[in-house]
Amino acid sequence: MPFDYKKEYKDLYQPKTKPAIVEVPRMSFVAVEGKGDPNEEGGDYQTTLQLLYGISFTIKMSKKSKNPDDQIDGYFDYVVPPLEGLWWMTDDGMLTGIDYSRKSDFHWISMIRLPEFVTPNVFEHAREQFAAKHPETDVSRAFLFDFDEGTVAQVMHKGPYDDEPATITALDAYANEQGYALDFGASRYHHEIYLSDPRKSKPENLKTVIRHPVKPTDQ
Which residue numbers delimit the GyrI-like small molecule binding domain (predicted)? Predict the structure, then answer.
């Protein structure tokens, strides 16, 4: 059976609707950074998804290639993990959380987790393969991103994306009650993991993991 990160790491991908404090280990992603409203039809965020999924599936399907150069040491079959997003805004040069009324001001890193066998050389080879098949795509925007997230408050949000603020308010209140403060800043972002395909799911059935970086209030 293909290795499924969602099933093997349920604490990270299948949390409860009740918030919790968790430690997220370092992991690697294929990522693209951008700015703007993610809902803009044909906008930058929408166009990056082809690049992210393209490179992800190039790596996954390498096992079927007859070219020895495409074979990867340590490869194991796996389910491509879900799309994730890091989101932030800047006010007076400081990184902050997000204001849903100002989506055009969003900064984001859109990303998909990669298996542990993906080295910089493996990533670059996959990027070159995808570029050869899609010369119209700027593959230079995709980068290998090592993310050490650390301590976060985490919760499962069920429902439309625009209903997230209420869930976030409860998440932040829980963190405060547990003796933690929000810790937005360099490499510490509002984080979402999209477990549902909005094209195939009703808004009320969408499942989204939400994480906020936190630190003990006495630090």
Answer: 18-215
Domain of 125?
A: 5-216
Q: How many CB atoms lie within 10 A of CB 39?
A: 12
Strand bridging mode 83-91 / 20-24? unpaired
pTM for this entry: 0.94
For the chain, how many residues are written?
Answer: 219
Cβ atoms of residues 90 and 119 within 8 Å: no
Q: Is 187 helix (H, G, I), strand (E, B) or coil?
A: coil
Q: Concatenated DSSP letters for 54-119?
A: HHHHHHHGGGG-S-GGG--TT---BPPPPEEEEEEEEETTEEE---TT-GGG-EEEEEEE--TT--
In Å, how far are 68, 112, 131 from 79, measured between CA atoms?
23, 11, 23
- How many structural domains does the chain have? 1
Contact 151, 213 (CB under 8 A): yes
pLDDT digits (tens, 9 = 90+) for 162-172: 999 999 999 99
Here the CATH number for the domain that contains residue 23 is: 3.20.80.10
Q: What is the pLDDT of residues 185-206, one digit of tens each?
A: 889 999 999 999 888 889 999 9
